[in-house]
Amino acid sequence: MNDLTNIPVNQAPSSKPRRDVAVPGEPFGWLRSEIDRLFEDFGRPARSAFNFGLRSLAPVPALEMVDDKQNYRLTAELPGLADKDIDITVADGVLTISGEKREETERSEQGFMLSERRYGRFERQVTLPADVDPEAIKAQFKDGVLTLTLAKDEKAAARTRKIAIEKA
């Protein structure tokens, strides 16, 4: 059996222990830190504006929804798009943001030519909270960020009722 206690440690003096190297006395420290990192990152979106979801290979824009008492504010990061490239629809309590990104670049210098094309269609659906008034949704698009203001329906709270449990 191999002696795992003499694993070299690549660590600068006076620095904090790194997660990607073995720690003396912990032969499997690196493996454990990698497994911990895997579980910490599980379910988190990637750190880019267009993430690739697990269910499809289509890019998915990052979203954020905030409740500011009178409204909900939903923002979507859509860099490189124009407002004419984006469609927003609402049906049966589901808001759908979809669009298509097309980018073409052509460059020719000193005997070589470069041509790049990037395009892709995306769609993101969000189930709206029950108290959103679909008729009062407003959208603004500036600097690659789509902001939707979802007005709350004041009558929705009045439609809420407690259900009594009957004895069987």
Draw up the topology in text.
Blueprint (H helix, E strand, L loop, with lengths): L28 H13 L8 E3 L6 E3 L1 E5 L3 E7 L8 E6 L2 E16 L2 E16 L4 E11 L2 E8 L16
Antiparallel strand pairs: 1-2, 3-4, 4-9, 5-6, 6-7, 8-9
Comma- or semicolon-separated keywords:
4-stranded antiparallel sheet; 3-stranded antiparallel sheet; 168 residues; 9 strands; mainly beta; single chain; 1 helix
Distance between the termini: 66 Å
Strand order of the largest sheet: 3-4-9-8
**Which residues form runs of ≥5 with pLDDT under 50?**
10-20, 47-57
Q: What would the principal axes of the Cα set say about the shape? A: flat
The total of helices stands at: 1
Major sheet details: 4 strands, antiparallel
Order of helices and strands: HEEEEEEEEE
Question: Structural class given helices, strands, pairing?
Answer: mainly beta
Instruction: Provide the gyration radius in Å.
Output: 25 Å
Could you give the count of β-strands? 9
Tell me what portion of residues adopts beta-strand conformation: 35-45%
What is the mean predicted local confidence, pLDDT? 75
Give the fraction of residues assigned to helices: under 10%
Q: Could you walk me through the main structural features you see in this protein, from its secondary elements to its overall organization?
A:
- The protein is mainly beta and 168 residues long.
- Helices cover 8% and strands 45% of the residues.
- It contains one helix and nine strands; from the N terminus they run αβββββββββ.
- The strands form three sheets. Strands 3-4-9-8 form a four-stranded antiparallel β-sheet, with no helix packed on it.
- A hairpin with a 2-residue loop joins β5 (86-91) and β6 (94-109).
- The relative contact order is 0.14.
